[in-house]
Design a protein that fits this description.
This protein is of the alpha+beta class and 127 residues long. It has 3 helices and 6 strands. The chain has a single domain, classed as GTP Cyclohydrolase I, domain 2. β2 and β3 form a beta hairpin.
């Protein structure tokens, strides 16, 4: 007997990052998000990794739509990925979507094996 997927599982699986037009292009401003319940899987051990992902960007023409970002972030919970890779992948996906003036993603991973990992990845649009 096959178990049908729950609506949240379907939403995460089918999610695509979305954007909307920045309606305040007369000035530069900063948008910050904190995702305190990020999880992924260690590709070496198969154990879960837990982190806080912090995203900070200065939009140009577009902003990220929050529900799509939430579903996108939750999509990593069953993916096997290294801390460095996932932080840079999130950054690149958002750069590709938004083409912002500036973007920074910080992966603040919980202590594992007596080591705390903090990965910071940055992008700046050429002037």
């Amino acid at each position: 007997m096959s178990e049908e997927k729950l609506y949240g599982e379907k939403a995460i699986e089918e999610n695509e990052l979305e954007r909307f037009e920045n309606r305040t292009q007369v000035r530069r401003y900063t948008v910050e998000f904190t995702c305190p319940e990020f999880t992924c899987i260690c590709p070496r051990s198969g154990f879960p990794d837990f982190a806080e992902i912090r995203i900070k960007y200065v939009p140009d023409k577009y902003c990220v739509e929050l529900k799509s970002l939430k579903l996108y972030i939750n999509g990593y919970r069953d993916k096997k990925t290294f801390h460095e890779d996932v932080t840079n992948k999130i950054l690149q996906d958002l750069v590709d979507l938004l083409d912002p003036w500036e973007l920074e993603v910080v992966g603040d991973f919980n202590v594992r094996g007596n080591i705390h990992t903090l990965v910071t990845s940055k992008h700046e649009k050429p002037q």
